[in-house]
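User: I'll paste a sequence; please echo it back and then give the predicted structure.

Assistant: Echoing your sequence first, then the prediction.
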Amino acid sequence: MEVEGNFSDKAKQDFDLVQKALSGTDQKAYAALMERYRDSIYFMVLRMVGNKDDADDLTIEAFGKAFKRLHQYTPQFAFSTWLFKIASNNCIDFIRKKKINALSLDAGFTNEEGDSMAFSIRDEDPDPMSNMERQQRIARLRDVVQQLKPRYRELVEMRYFDELSYEEIAEKLDLPLGTVKAQLFRAREFLLEMVKGFKDHL
């Protein structure tokens, strides 16, 4: 597979990094690609969703999805074009699925079939029946969370049940902010796998 002749030098360098990542010859190639585009992806996402925490989550998700699909990339377009398309589509999905006055465990997080894996936790609806259903949903979700490894379970509970910010979690656990974000992303991946079989009941 050869890169298009009209690509810029940066695009050609990106393509070289993609090839190294796919072949496994350079374990730092993924990090290099993320370092090149993390800030520009983040600011694009932030303009779309208008929330820094959501933008952080969606930026990490965008790279996660891109790296999982890296074998599908072809040099018909520059890697940056392909990456920004994935990131923008991820944001559009997030915006469509996010509900007003609801805290979602992972709004816009989808599986391979395109099903949303969003878990609404908070709801302002005072209706007793709705409140009971919400409490049941929270209880089922807590059961799933309890199956996570302790370090992931603690992070998920602090972020989504106690509603702490990333910074507050990092301070409480004495962890680097980047570590907190990365481990929360990993925890959400585990949760996605765990709820695939019974997502309709959450």
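The chain has two domains: 9-97, 100-197. The chain has a mean pLDDT of 76.
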